[in-house]
Amino acid sequence: MSDEPAIARRKADHLEVAASGRADFARSTLLEHVHLVHQALPELALADIDLSTELLGKRLAAPLVITGMTGGTGDAAAVNRDLARAAQAAGVAFGVGSQRAMAEHPELAASYQVRDVAPDVVLIGNVGAVQALTMGPAAVIELATRIGADALAIHLNPGQELIQPGGDRDFRGIVDAIRRIVSDAKVPVVVKETGCGLSREAARALISAGVTTVDTAGAGGTSWIAVEAIRAEAEASAGAAALGQELWDWGVPTAVSIVACARAGLTTIASGGLRTGYDAARALALGARAAGMAAPILRAQRAGGYDGARAALERVIESLRSICLLSGCRTPADLARAPRHLGAPLRSYLDDLGLGPAPGGAR
After folding, report:
1. Distance from C-alpha of 7 to C-alpha of 164, rounded to nearest angstrom
2. 99, 150, 261, 315: most buried by Cβ count inside 10 Å?
3. What's the pTM value of the predicted model, to 2 decimals?
4. CA pair distance 294, 326, nearest whole angstrom
5. How far, in Å, are 133, 195, 294, 306, 315 from residue 312 at the CA level?
6. How far apart, in whole angstroms, are the C-alpha atoms of residue 61 and residue 56?
7. In a domain, 179, yes or no
8. How are the residues of the chain apportioned to helix, strand and coil, as percentages rounded to the nearest 5?
9. How many distinct structural domains can be found in the chain?
10. What DSSP element (H or E) covers 65?
11. CA-atom Rg of the chain in angstroms
12. Are strands 339-342 and 34-36 parallel, antiparallel or unpaired?
């Protein structure tokens, strides 16, 4: 029997399933219903486009974040280092996966250490909200400090936990725990979902806790409920697998979550099923400050290592630059004011939740 900690084996399972695409949502992010209007006379050169963006008190070369995915295994260490190097080269931000494994098993800390290969990257630590409540602010902040993080993400994942055998079942006290961490932390705190999205009500609760930056991680990309359902099937946990199958597509679509958070006044990182530069542009048009990607960059790394991850980032950045020009926008922020049309499914969803009329320059 392996001496590897159970949490490390779970992290390895998570990485394999997420990379495989087997746990993708069946329904969409609704971002495909954001249609930017082509400008045949942009009066811009491609070289005029400035993608640089401020996020978490730092300047990025482009408004992109490789969002937190992994840590806690030898394979995860190699992935994190490749992705951090790619982020460093592209001038974008990078987040590690949940540091719970590092907190429970200090010998796994090396799988989160990337500063030696990415000294300038905007680095985001990561811990689960329930663990943050249990550990207390000082221990949570120390996890971020130990990897030299520029910011700390607190992740919310009640859907995933309910499917995971032995997962958390009590989510009381989370808002107060976040409030105390925000108060004590010397670095910015980001609160992020993990694939089910943030609603308008969640955005308001986070604002009451002093949070200013969120990561939507909306429905439409990788379903972590599905990841746990697949794991439960493999472990012959029939009840968990059945519940996971039933709730596979649960969550707030990414496009809706972006509008809910941006309208609430939160600096919004849009993630959850973004796959291309066009998806990133659509998210920025809805009010996001930056776009987050996980699965597409992970899959590129799995196929081609560091070079594959870097090439994937470069494609996204060049696509975003081209779309800015074709939309007549000199900067990513200008996309939020650019003319666009929202398709009926997204418009209807926003209206039903009281988030209409359509944002920005929508027609």
Report:
1. 12
2. 261
3. 0.95
4. 26
5. 37, 22, 11, 10, 5
6. 13
7. yes
8. 50, 15, 35
9. 1
10. strand 64-66
11. 19
12. antiparallel
Output the domain CATH number for residue 265.
3.20.20.70
Q: Is residue 350 part of a domain?
A: yes
Supply 19's token pair. Answer: 């990379």
Side chain identity at residue 163, one-letter code? I
Distant-in-sequence, close-in-space partners of 352: CB < 8 Å, separation ≥ 6? none
Cα–Cα dist 123/14, whole Å: 21
The answer to the question of residue 118 being in a domain is: yes
| Alpha-helical regions (H) of the chain | 6-20, 74-90, 100-104, 129-135, 137-146, 158-163, 174-184, 200-208, 224-234, 238-246, 254-263, 277-285, 295-326, 344-352
Compute the distance between CA of residue 319 and CA of residue 20 in angstroms, rounded to an integer.
Answer: 25
Residue 359: pLDDT above 60? no
Contact predicate 189/167, CB 8 Å: no
**Does residue 1 belong to any structural domain of this protein?**
no
pLDDT at 293 over 70: yes
Residue 363 confidence (pLDDT)? 38
Neighbours of 268 (CB within 10 A): 29
Strand partners, 192: 155, 215
Cis bond leading into 357, ω under 30°?
yes
As a whole number of angstroms, the distance between CA 121 and CA 79 comes to 16
Q: Tell which residue, 198, 159, 168, has the closest CA to residue 100.
A: 168
Distance between CA atoms of 70 and 97, rounded to whole angstroms? 4
Q: Which long-range contacts (CB under 8 A, 24 or more apart) does 101-106 make?
A: 101/5, 101/7, 101/8, 101/11, 101/71, 101/72, 102/71, 102/72, 102/143, 102/146, 103/127, 103/131, 103/135, 103/139, 103/143, 104/5, 104/7, 105/5, 105/7, 105/8, 105/72
Question: Which residue is listed with tokens 């955005």?
Answer: 203
The predicted-structure confidence for 216-262, as pLDDT tens digits, reads as follows 999 999 999 999 999 888 876 888 999 999 999 999 999 999 999 99
User: Where do we find the tokens 């400050």?
Assistant: 289
pLDDT in tens, 151-181: 999 999 999 999 988 899 999 999 999 999 9
User: Taking CA 293 as the corner, what is the angle to CA 290 and CA 118, rounded to the nearest 5 degrees?
Assistant: 85
The two tokens of residue 261 are 């958070």
Range of the domain at 142: 6-362
Indicate whether 362 pLDDT > 50: no
Burial 44-61 (b: 16+ CB within 10 A, else e): beeeebebebebbeeebe
